[in-house]
Design brief:
alpha/beta; Rossmann fold; 7-stranded mixed β-sheet; 6 helices; binds S-adenosylmethionine
Length: 201
Amino acid sequence: MATVIDYEVLRRQSHGRLAVEDMQLLERACAVCSARTILEIGAADGGSSVILAAQAAKRDGRLYSIEGNPKAGMMANLAAYGLQDRCTLLPAWSPWLGPLEQEIPPVIDLLFIDGRHDIRWCLMDYHYWQPRVRPGGVIVFHDTGGMCREDRAQPDFGSPGYVSLVRRAIALILATDPLVQIDANDGRDGGAIAYRKGIAL
Ligand SMILES: C[S@@+](CC[C@H](N)C(=O)[O-])C[C@H]1O[C@@H](n2cnc3c(N)ncnc32)[C@H](O)[C@@H]1O
């Protein structure tokens, strides 16, 4: 049975780091690639984790979530929606997972990048994990929106001004890699862009 999620409620439960429009984009991105196996980098209080675990559950799949500073709120939010058994939390800083890396399947349908947002970290997360995304799979970057409410109290997320840094990282990636933009939200409090991975990568 599909999990019913009120996105406004989930947004409040997860400290508003993901706009409702970004949650809707994640849902569409999962639908486009029939996502069963999903990898997320950066969970915080689990706003995106709940959406992605629910999408994986819908297809009898699983979310793998890498978070260097796991918060009790993340697992509590997953449990509130009955999704705790659909998520494997990997408490480590991407991409240095050590033996935990073996828990992530070699092929994934969707990669969500929302860890540290400075250019080299976005590039590193992308280049390290994108080889696992199957051709036709989807890669979503978060905090790409012009009106993003950056959280300067949380230096883990990246330098102030990090939205422009994420966008510059994406521009560097697009200069060489055949990603096709399939969706974007340039809204308040975040913003996200989704790309489908080309066959030639
Ligand atoms: C913007 S928050 C994620 C928000 C979350 N996706 C949501 O929907 O609410 C960024 C998170 O990434 C984590 N983080 C930063 N760098 C990371 C890395 N290299 N590996 C794993 N987690 C990282 C931080 O600890 C922080 O919790």
